[in-house]
Amino acid sequence: MTVSSKLVEVPKSGFSSIPVIDISDPESKHDMEKACEDFGFFKVINHSVSSELVSVLDHEAVEFFSLPTSQKTQVAGYPFGYGKRAIGRSGDVGWVEYFSFFSSSTLLLFSHSTLVLENALLEYTKSVRKMTCDVLEMMTDGLGIKPRNTHSKLVSGENTDSIFRLNHYPPCPLINNNNTNGSNIVIGFGEHTDPQIISVLRSNNTCGLQINLSDGSWISVPSDPSSFFFNVSDSLQVLTNGRFKSVKHRVLANSRKSRVSMIYFAGPSLTQRIAPLTCLIDNEDESLYEEFTWSEYKNSTYNSRLSDNRLQPFEKK
Ligand code: GA4
Fold first, then answer.
1. What is the mean pLDDT of residues 8-12?
2. Which of the four pLDDT bands, split at 50, 70 and 90, describes residue 108?
3. Among its keywords, does the record have Oxidoreductase (predicted)?
4. Complex-level ipTM
5. Which of 14, 42, 144, 171 is the most buried (most CB within 10 A)?
6. With a 6 A CB cut-off, is 194 part of the ligand 1 pocket?
């Protein structure tokens, strides 16, 4: 966790607002494609994930994080299980506690949680996976790629390596409320890009998430508990040969309010080869990246620092 005196910058380029995609309208594919190219980030509305399911999970998450630390640490573990402050295993820290689950279509490898939480998680991840596939299919269509399931099939099979994570950012007493110019910030989760294909985030009504624009400025994402936020991750940047941007993002702690977010990191199977799609390049020379498997990338990721540029070693010289 860093207490920084850096000012939150104001965007210099013509940014107006976070792109909003209505997934019930097939024509939104054009806006989605543009959002992926310009920001690597968009908000999805009119989705089919049930609000009741979301409420159950929200409630269960709040209950879990309210438990005494001694009880939560009984289910501590990395990469799956409970964690507090420490992020990854290379020394990063943040004003955050979390609970990560391995998630695949048939399996939830976590035996300590309550039955209610497990059931809610299974139902939620099933529903979010379906929405993720719909979004990826719309995106593939927007790129003019056939078949429609070119991307969605990477995250929908039995062996996909996805993660589901609950993050809790408690109110932070280190933030000085008397400082009115916004220069006193505490990092909840430091700047990074996600390594998978796409990430799907939902949060309660507390803001804190920021995305980084190409001019380097940070944009605060207004919270919206009824919508989902999608961010392009590293593997999708490679698959599209850099056309879609893996968005750098971070979370700032709040002085008074708790933020609870739930994120589904949609990854491919460990053996999946990741390289620019041949239909997006005219010949091999145009490829910006060396091919890798998800397992290779994942291994290098888990040995890196949060803010590292993890794709750099795979860029063609
Ligand atoms: C960033 C995206 C996901 O939160 C995550 C993170 C993972 C972790 O918290 O264990 C990592 C980070 C994330 C990338 C670099 C490594 C691994 C922390 C870290 C320092 C769960 C993931 O898949 O990669």
1. 50
2. very low
3. yes
4. 0.99
5. 42
6. yes
List the one residue out of 137, 147, 117 whose CA is nearest residue 57.
117
Domains belonging to the chain, first-starting first, are 20-308 (2.60.120.330)
Q: What is the pLDDT of residues 145-192, one digit of tens each?
A: 999 999 999 999 889 999 999 999 999 998 876 655 556 899 999 999
Burial class (CB in 10 A: 0-12, 13-18, 19+), 172: buried
248 lines ligand 1 (CB under 6 A): no
Q: And the tokens for 156?
A: 């929908």
Task: Say if residue 111's pLDDT is above 60.
Answer: no
Ligand 1 pocket check for 87: Cβ under 6 Å: yes
Exposed, middle or buried: residue 91 (CB in 10 Å: 0-12, 13-18, 19+)? exposed
**Residue nearest atom 13 of ligand 1, based on CA coordinates:** 194
Average pLDDT estimate for 41-64: 94
Q: Verify cis geometry, omega within 30 degrees of 0, for the bond prior to 79.
A: yes
Q: Assess whether 259 carries a catalytic annotation.
A: yes
Alpha-carbon span 12 to 233, nearest angstrom: 24
To test the ligand 1 pocket, which listed residue (247, 301, 305) has its Cβ within 8 A of the most ligand atoms? Answer: 301
CA atoms within 13 A of residue 30's CA, in its CB half-sphere: 1
Q: Which two tokens stand for residue 64?
A: 């879990």
Give the pLDDT of residue 234: 98
What global pTM score does this model have?
Answer: 0.94
Ligand 1, atom 11: closest residue by C-alpha: 88
Q: What is the DSSP letter of 7?
A: P
